[in-house]
Amino acid sequence: MDTTADTIDDKTPDRTPDKTIALSTTGLLVAALAVLALVVAYLLGGSGGTPVAQAVTPVPTAEGADAAPRTLTMSGVGEATAVPDQVTFDLSVRMKRPELDEALDAASRTMTRVLAALEAEGVERKDVQTTGLEMYPVYDYPRYSPPVLTGYRVTQRAAVLVRELRSAGGAVSAAIDAGGNAARVGDIALKIGDPEAALGKARRLAVEEATLKAQEYAEATGQELGAVMTLREVEATSLSAIDERPLAYEMAAAFRSSADSAPLPVSAGRADLGVTVQVVWELAA
């Protein structure tokens, strides 16, 4: 009996370490599985809930894609001539008086007379735009003496548009006649009242030229033009400048209107406008 008890007591301590080691290994496996689950959850969350393997979109092969359409690109240039039918010029009135308010009053009265003369020639008030007002003192500089104030000079400026070319000469002459020596006329320029009309003709000619060239190339290569895919205006510019002749005061004074003199003659000249377009056609199958 005593021998059996001693045997059991000797074997019991040997079994306890084996059980402890088995439990520790199982804990490590559970922890590793938990970490692995967290990593998978993180990856799924970063990809918006889509598995990483499905986030790559397969690239379609060339066999499944439609072939790009065959196209033909051609440019064309159109030109049109326009005759200026309007005139613009700058108008100024300068007055010098001993006092500033006197100079302002004199300049205003003179400009009012000039505007009335322009209106009598068919120029509407809306076509006269004030562009500036200058006021500054005038000094005399004697030798060996301080400057002496001699008065004030006031200048009123305006831009005038004459909508009918035949009235331009009379308008310029009337302005100079009404303003006298205080009036100045300059920068007379011819203007096209409706440039879009001339540009519209140039655009049509540009498209016609591009179409004709495209048809010739298509026929030469045994192709046939299809529908127009794109049309782009590359450039729309004036090919030659409109004739502009500034008119100094001395020249204008020689043409002042009077009962026995003709108005200042104005020649219209011409302006060439150009447009370049680029057209892309699809070649018919």
Description:
With 285 residues, the chain is α+β, with helices and mostly antiparallel strands. It has three domains: 2-54; 71-81 and 197-238 and 276-283; 84-193 and 241-269, Alpha-Beta Plaits (2-Layer Sandwich). The protein contains five helices and seven strands. It has helices at residues 2-46, 100-120, 168-179, 195-220, 249-253; strands at 71-82, 86-97, 128-140, 148-162, 183-191, 225-238, 271-283. The strands form two sheets. A four-stranded antiparallel beta sheet has the order 3-4-2-5. Strands 1-7-6 form a three-stranded antiparallel beta sheet. Helix 2 packs antiparallel against helix 3 (168-179). The chain is elongated. Residues 1-23, 39-65 and 240-261 have low confidence and may be disordered.
Features:
285 residues, alpha+beta, Alpha-Beta Plaits, 3-stranded antiparallel sheet, 5 helices
Give a quick precis of the structure.
The protein has 285 residues and is α+β, with helices and mostly antiparallel strands. It has helices spanning 2-46, 100-120, 168-179, 195-220, 249-253; strands at residues 71-82, 86-97, 128-140, 148-162, 183-191, 225-238, 271-283.
Global outline? elongated
Number of DSSP strands? 7
| Poorly predicted parts | 1-23, 39-65, 240-261
* CATH architecture identity of the largest domain: 2-Layer Sandwich
> Which strand order does the major sheet show?
3-4-2-5
Would you tell me the overall average pLDDT?
Answer: 75
Q: Please report the number of helical segments.
A: 5
Give the N-to-C terminal Cα separation.
109 Å
State the fourth-level CATH superfamily of the largest domain. Answer: Protein of unknown function (DUF541), domain 2
What's the domain count? 3
Structural class: alpha+beta
